[in-house]
Amino acid sequence: MFALANWQLQRGLDKAQRMQSIDSVTNSTSYSFDAVLARTQDIQDLPISFSGSIESQQVFLLDNRIKQGRPGFDVYAVAKSNDHNVLVNFGWVAGKQMRDDLPEVSLPDRLNDAQGRVVLPSDNPMVKETATQDGLWPKVIQQIDIQFIEQVLQAEVLPFVITLTQNNAQFIRNWQPVVMPPEKHYAYAVQWLGLGIAAFFVYFFALRARLRSGLKKGSHEQDE
């Protein structure tokens, strides 16, 4: 329980640091594609403006995305900009009643001066990919695994994603880099700490009672 409290505390501190980093770049001008590529670190959440051609027929649908209680998908496709392939998140679309009935999306063949944010995808080893490397599109995926996408496309893809932020009638684009605020992690840390302290005192008094009982038993045996 103490370990869980410490883990939640660290998660809260990490979230607070990321929110501070986001605030520091929110009012800055958008970086060009070349400027982002020139940076070797600290590219997470950077605003970016870029242009590129889109592989509009090769659509990836990220599964299990929930918006306002409705299940749906985040729509991804690869853009080629400055001879580099980069995965682009076009936004969220609602799913249909039948799970096998995938939503139809229409992507442009090109983006010009598109505005977005740089996102570094995280790999969850507990998530098992169910998509196959075949020629069927759109392809439903369980997480953003750049290596898997490279295998599917048979091409190199940059290790970050650009999430588009401009309003669009077809997609919902309410970019939320931090879903759970730091305060919630701190509250969980306090709860785990309280449970740990309570468990410690229960153990302490139970052990003391057991030791007293053992001493009394030993004293009676000596008297006999």
Automatic annotation (TrEMBL):
<keyword id="KW-1133">Transmembrane helix</keyword>
<keyword id="KW-0812">Transmembrane</keyword>
<keyword id="KW-1003">Cell membrane</keyword>
<protein>
    <recommendedName>
        <fullName>SURF1-like protein</fullName>
    </recommendedName>
</protein>
<comment type="similarity">
    <text>Belongs to the SURF1 family.</text>
</comment>
<feature type="transmembrane region" description="Helical">
    <location>
        <begin position="186"/>
        <end position="207"/>
    </location>
</feature>
<keyword id="KW-0472">Membrane</keyword>
<dbReference type="InterPro" id="IPR002994">
    <property type="entry name" value="Surf1/Shy1"/>
</dbReference>
<dbReference type="GO" id="GO:0005886">
    <property type="term" value="C:plasma membrane"/>
</dbReference>
<dbReference type="Pfam" id="PF02104">
    <property type="entry name" value="SURF1"/>
</dbReference>
